[in-house]
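Review box. Two proteins, two foldings.
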Amino acid sequence: EMLQEVVPMLKQQLAKCTLDRNYVQLERDTIQTFYDITRNEVKEIEEQVVAKDREMELLEDNHRVEVRVYLQKVKHLEYEHSNNLKAIGVEGDGLTADEGEQHDARSSELAKTKKALTLELAERQWSNAEEVKQMRQQHAKNSQKMREGFEKNLGELRERQHERLEQLERDLELRRKVHIHEIEERKNLHINDLMM
């Protein structure tokens, strides 16, 4: 009879402990979900950083293409100028004074054009180099800030989750001890009643 009375009480305690264990498991699953979300956000930021790096590489490639185009223009003008000089040299004896003046004007114009293109190329190179430098610096600052922010948030989240989990474990342990103590008290009382 004593065992029959104790069994329902123990079953009730077991059900309560099982409920508490399920609650702690649910809390752990929630914490894991928060951790996975944060890890995915960090991964997305890293992918954005890689995309920015690719964008910088593309910008540098475009800059190199522009430099090659300007160099080709300069070479073409030099070639044209050289050909004109050769043609003038071959036909020089047959040219009139007006044709000589036109040649000088053409040579002067070609020289001015070449100088202007050379200056424009130098300015474009300097401007592009400064733009690339500033974009890299800004990109590095933004990436560092994003990394620091996410690392800080991730650390705080982990700390809060760890503290919450420890508190849950302490609460569950305390409940377990209280339940065991209550069971022992009821058992002792029941034994005392039986002995009387």
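Next protein.
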Amino acid sequence: MTAADSSIREVALEDFAAWRAEGPPGDAVHIKGFCSGIGTYYDEDAITFVAKGGFTLVVWDGDTLEETGFTRLLPQLLSSHPTLRVAAFRISSHLESFQKSWQKVAASFPGRFVVVPVELQAPDFAAVRKFFPDVTWAQIKEMPERRLNYVVLGSLAVQVTGAKNVMALGGGYVALKEAELLDGQGVLWIVFALSRNEKQEEFTTLMDWATKSTYAKLETGKDPHEAFAFADTALKPAPS
């Protein structure tokens, strides 16, 4: 097998709907969370959630494979569900590192793994503007520039797939801002309260948001360092 043969299939943003129609019908679920430093306390819960939901597509924002982060679940999900497909939305300029990270996994599940390259050029993001409702785009334009590309990328993926379920294993600034943008659009977030590196979070996290949103279901009680996942001490779940 040559290097070209082993590369992960790329699907253009405009062709994503056609690629999806090639596979089994069903809903998509997005997976997000901390990229590293989390325990395995909710791995089985997450895999069960995908199975019970009958999802046929799992989508993420192109993060590389990391055994201490949420992406470790993707190979497990592919192994557990024989017809499941996965799609990563990745910033175009970062494709090389993505291919290197995921090539072996993708080769183990032929025909079930693609990457969608996304061209993001701040501040106008002209290539992706059409995929966002006006109200959401107005919110994006008011956001600070900090990691804005990644917030736009994650929000775009949800808009393109039409997903109504997001599953998060922890989650920091980017996931938080995506959740705020999607709040009120009928997207349900299943948030597993996970600490990162067993250290106290300094800034507001997705877990903080999940305690207050009617569009979130916060799962707690398994991570012994769970309290560290909440920057706002007033929002930390009471000990059981």
